[in-house]
Q: What sequence folds into this?
C-alpha cells in the first residue's frame, strides 16, 4: 500500500499549513468506515491509533478539528481495507457525495445535469461553503468550458486530496444518473499549482476517448 499524501504532510510529521477540517467530514468518514469495516472493527481501529488529537467518535459536525487527525484515520482505514490511500479516498468521495446530497439537497436540486452543477460549484463554492463551515479552510474550485466541449474543473488545496475530488466527481455523476469521463490532466502532487480535471458527458462531442476514466 502506498500513500497519496506528500511527504511533507504525512500524518505524524506536524500540522499542514492550510488549517482545519470540519467535523462533518469526520462524521462522514466514520459512517463510511462503519459501513465497510463494521462498527466494532472501527472502534478497535480508533482505540489502537496513536497520535489523534481528538476521538473522532466524539466529533460534532460544526466543530473544527486537526487536518492531521483526518490523515491518520484515512491511512489507518486504508490499511484495514488493504487498499492504498488514493483508492480509499476515491471510494470515500463517492460515499460522501451521496450523503452530502441527502443533507444539503438545496445545493443539488436546482440542477438536472452534472455540467450545470459543476458550473455552480466553480462560481459559488468557496463563498457558500465558507459561510456554511466558518472556521475551516476550504478548497478552491474553478470551472470553465474547453473549446472541444469538455468542462475543465480545477481544484486547489494544500491538502492535495485529489483522489477524494475524483470520488466526488464520480458521486456527482451517480447522483444525476449521468456517466462522466474524468481525465486528471494536471496534478499538484506532480508539481502543478492546481489539479485540473477534464470532464466529458455522454452528450458531448467528440465522444470520450484517449484513455479517460469513465465513472458511472
A:
Amino acid at each position: 500500500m502506498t500513500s497519496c499524501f506528500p511527504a511533507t504532510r504525512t500524518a505524524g510529521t506536524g500540522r499542514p499549513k492550510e488549517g482545519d477540517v470540519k467535523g462533518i467530514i469526520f462524521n462522514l468518514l466514520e459512517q463510511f468506515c462503519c459501513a465497510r469495516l463494521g462498527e466494532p472493527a472501527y472502534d478497535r481501529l480508533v482505540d489502537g491509533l496513536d497520535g489523534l488529537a481528538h476521538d473522532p467518535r466524539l466529533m460534532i459536525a460544526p466543530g473544527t478539528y486537526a487536518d492531521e487527525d483526518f490523515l491518520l484515520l484515512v491511512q489507518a482505514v486504508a490499511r484495514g481495507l488493504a487498499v492504498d490511500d488514493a483508492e480509499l479516498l476515491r471510494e470515500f468521495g463517492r460515499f460522501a457525495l451521496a450523503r452530502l446530497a441527502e443533507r444539503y439537497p438545496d445545493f443539488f436540486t436546482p440542477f438536472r445535469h452534472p455540467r450545470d452543477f459543476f458550473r455552480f460549484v466553480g462560481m459559488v463554492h468557496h463563498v457558500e461553503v465558507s459561510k456554511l463551515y466558518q472556521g475551516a479552510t476550504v478548497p478552491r474550485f474553478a470551472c470553465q468550458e474547453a473549446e472541444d466541449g469538455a468542462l475543465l474543473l480545477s481544484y486547489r488545496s494544500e491538502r492535495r486530496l485529489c483522489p477524494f475530488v475524483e470520488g466526488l466527481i464520480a458521486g456527482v455523476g451517480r447522483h444525476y444518473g449521468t456517466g462522466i469521463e474524468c481525465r486528471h490532466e494536471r496534478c499538484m502532487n506532480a508539481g502543478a499549482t492546481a489539479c485540473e480535471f477534464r470532464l466529458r458527458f455522454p452528450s458531448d462531442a467528440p465522444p470520450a476517448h484517449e484513455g479517460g476514466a469513465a465513472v458511472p
